[in-house]
């Protein structure tokens, strides 16, 4: 079964600092990978997705993520944090086929706090 | 653009009571999903429906039933609520099934079982 690990349940940065949220997946075949953001009391919104077209994926709000097969990682970064980035972030994977196809497996989530 | 609409937004139940969470999407998607979100555990799939007329169990189906009423609507029923079912429930839809496409999520239903 697929699994996703997000290192660090809480990350705190200063406004203007680099944001780095870590995600590692377990799969023998590179899956489809996603980052979602959840603002307080809201649903999940897609930030970006990897579908094998390019290893560096750019998303909304200045976020990007790099797929590294050798490290089974898909870390999320943003060069300069804004106060509005404070939210919970989820990494998720979906298989290409088999019994897991069409279903998302989520990581535990990382709460990002941005200090003035 | 409504997207995925869930009702109710909040609910408090007593142990043993039953209720149905409603979900409707207006994007003509074939696949629909129910997830529950618990602190520190991310979202876990309860049930999903790959297409109208089909439903399958996800990771945590015990204590729940679902109905794919038509292409738009996918409901989740708790027959006898338990405190362990206190959670935030999200409905999602996608087309095709999530693979190289994204899932769209509703705003969630916050359920407390006392």
Provide an overview of this structure.
The complex is a heterodimer of chains A (116) and B (114). Chain A is mostly beta strands and 116 residues long. Chain A is 0% helix and 53% strand. In chain A, strands 2, 4, 5, 9, 10 and 11 form a six-stranded mixed beta sheet that branches. A five-stranded antiparallel beta sheet of chain A has the order 1-3-8-7-6, with no helix packed on it. Chain A is globular and about 45 Å long. By secondary structure, chain B is mainly beta. Chain B has no helices and eleven strands. The radius of gyration of chain B is 13 Å and the shape is globular. The interface between A and B is medium-sized, with 28 and 27 residues.
Layout of strands and helices, then pairs:
The complex is a heterodimer of chains A (116) and B (114).
Chain A: E1 3-7, E2 10-14, E3 19-26, E4 32-38, E5 44-50, E6 56-58, E7 64-68, E8 73-78, E9 87-94, E10 105-106, E11 110-115
Parallel strand pairs in A: 2-11
Antiparallel strand pairs in A: 1-3, 3-8, 4-5, 4-9, 6-7, 7-8, 9-10, 9-11
Chain B: E1 4-7, E2 10-13, E3 19-25, E4 31-37, E5 43-49, E6 56-57, E7 64-68, E8 74-78, E9 87-94, E10 104-105, E11 109-113
Parallel strand pairs in B: 2-11
Antiparallel strand pairs in B: 1-3, 3-8, 4-5, 4-9, 5-6, 7-8, 9-10, 9-11
């Amino acid at each position: 079964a697929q699994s996703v690990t997000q290192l660090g349940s809480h990350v705190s940065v200063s406004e203007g600092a680099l944001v780095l949220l870590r995600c590692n997946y377990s799969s023998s075949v590179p899956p489809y990978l996603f980052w979602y953001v959840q603002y307080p009391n809201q649903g999940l919104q897609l930030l970006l997705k990897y579908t094998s077209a390019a290893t560096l994926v750019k998303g909304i709000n200045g976020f990007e993520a790099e797929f590294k097969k050798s490290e089974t990682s898909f870390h999320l970064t943003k060069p300069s944090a804004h106060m509005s980035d404070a939210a919970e972030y989820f990494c998720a994977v979906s298989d290409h086929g088999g019994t897991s196809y069409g279903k998302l497996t989520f990581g535990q989530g990382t709460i990002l706090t941005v200090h003035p | 653009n409504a997207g995925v609409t869930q009702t109710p937004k909040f609910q408090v139940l007593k142990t043993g009571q039953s209720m149905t969470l409603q979900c409707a999407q207006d994007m003509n998607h074939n696949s629909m999903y129910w997830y529950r979100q618990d602190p520190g555990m991310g979202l876990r799939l309860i049930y999903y429906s790959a297409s109208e007329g089909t439903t399958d169990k996800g990771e945590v189906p015990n204590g729940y039933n679902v109905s794919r009423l038509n292409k738009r609507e996918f409901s989740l029923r708790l027959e006898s609520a338990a405190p362990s079912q206190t959670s935030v429930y999200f409905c999602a839809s996608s087309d095709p099934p999530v693979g190289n496409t994204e899932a769209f999520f509703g705003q969630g239903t916050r359920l407390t079982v006392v």
